[in-house]
């Protein structure tokens, strides 16, 4: 799907994104990602959520990271940002429009970067991962959650063409971005990968 149509689709879904059975599925996946993020970086003080949507992940992290000073969400869909801002009750939460390929943050700004089921929507996954690595401090952690195929062929058709949708391809992009020690964790059909910044 072209990027502008993809953003429009998420704009349209924003008001009811957390409701219904699909919303519950997203919350279940997000909760597992949050648990892994906290296991990897239990004392994270500066957190970035790439493709933050309605802000659910950051709201959960804010409740469990009382010493965190900044929790920032970036999403290209203006309606997602609006819904996230309206739902935010913690002053440390901040939501801005932006893309994974051009993160609005300086080098080494975050201890933890998390992205939950948005990786497949990034226009340029390699550039997005390079940006995630750039904004992480040395020793900082990336937690990347999405659906990955066991076989290569599903990644060669339709909107998946050219996307890193197998473990091998995703791992290659992650290590090429300068992240190390990738670990895979399974949740339903979703794979969560954690990696550490090397710089």
Give the amount of beta strand, in percent. 25-35%
Give a quick account of the main beta sheet: strands, pairing sense, barrel closure.
Answer: 7 strands, mixed
Write the CATH architecture name: 3-Layer(aba) Sandwich
- What level of helicity do the residues show? 25-40%
SSE pattern, N- to C-terminal: HHEHEHEEHEHEE
CATH superfamily: Vaccinia Virus protein VP39
Mean pLDDT: 82
The third-level CATH topology is: Rossmann fold
Describe the structure.
The chain has 199 residues and is an alpha/beta fold. The protein has a single domain (3-197), classed as 3-Layer(aba) Sandwich (Rossmann fold). It has helices at residues 3-13, 20-40, 56-64, 78-87, 125-135, 167-176, and strands spanning 46-50, 70-75, 93-97, 110-116, 136-147, 179-187, 190-197. It has a seven-stranded mixed sheet with strand order 3-2-1-4-5-7-6, sandwiched between helices. Strand 6 (179-187) and strand 7 (190-197) form a beta hairpin. Helix 2 (20-40) packs across helix 3. The radius of gyration is 15 Å and the shape is globular. The termini are far apart.
List keywords for this structure.
199 residues; alpha/beta; Rossmann fold; 7-stranded mixed beta sheet; 6 helices; 26% strand; globular
